[in-house]
Amino acid sequence: MGRAGKALKQVLEAYGISQNRLAVVMDVGRSNIHRWVNGTTDPVAEAVLEIRDALQQIDPEAATEFIRLYLGEED
Length: 75
Hints:
Helix content: over 70%
CATH class: Mainly Alpha
Number of helices: 5
Distance between the termini: 23 Å
Shape: globular
Strand content: under 5%
Largest sheet: none
């Protein structure tokens, strides 16, 4: 699993955001989110930005945490 997929999985679980809700906000199929979260594929750079934007709409703290985890920044 790539870094973005791991970060996304952690954030969705920690913030109680369903894969379906993220998919709806992003206007993509839930199967895309499922593949990212389960490590089948990793989102491309453009999709990482779209994930961040969608998370920002759902929960701004989740968006910040996603980017922090994705970039590997420590507290």
